[in-house]
Amino acid sequence: MNASFDLNHNRLAGDSKFASVTEGLNTLSRIDSKDTFNRYCRKACLLWNERLGTTALFSELLDRINRRSEGTILTPWGGVVIVLHEHPPS
Fold first, then answer.
1. I need a surface site. Which of 35, 66, 68, 90 has the fewest CB within 10 A?
2. Cα Rg for the chain, rounded, in angstroms?
């Protein structure tokens, strides 16, 4: 079975902070293979880094991965930090 997904960036583009990122992604908004998925992900990361940069939190989490701290998983693409997310009270 072949799956195909059309991505809609309208909500993200509605925030002026992210508009320039979504402009670059709109041409890649149809994902219909592993290749197009990987191309989209690479472009999204590149645009984010070029236009928005990273935050102090990103640097902190990357440091935790590099130190192999508790709650991290090393992966071929870098790593994952496991965190507990608690929804705010309603």
1. 90
2. 16
Say yes or no: 9 and 38 in one domain. yes
CB 5 within 8 A of CB 32: yes
Q: Around 32, how many Cα atoms within 13 Å sit in the side-chain half-sphere?
A: 5
Rounded-to-integer distance, Cα 72 and Cα 63, Å? 10
Q: Are residues 60 and 47 in the same domain?
A: no
Its pTM stands at: 0.62
Spatial distance between the Cα atoms of 43 and 67, rounded to a whole number of angstroms = 28
The C-alpha angle 26, 28, 31, rounded to 5 degrees, equals: 125
Count structural domains, the chain. 2
> If you average pLDDT over residues 55-82, what whole number do you get?
87
Range of the domain at 23: 5-51
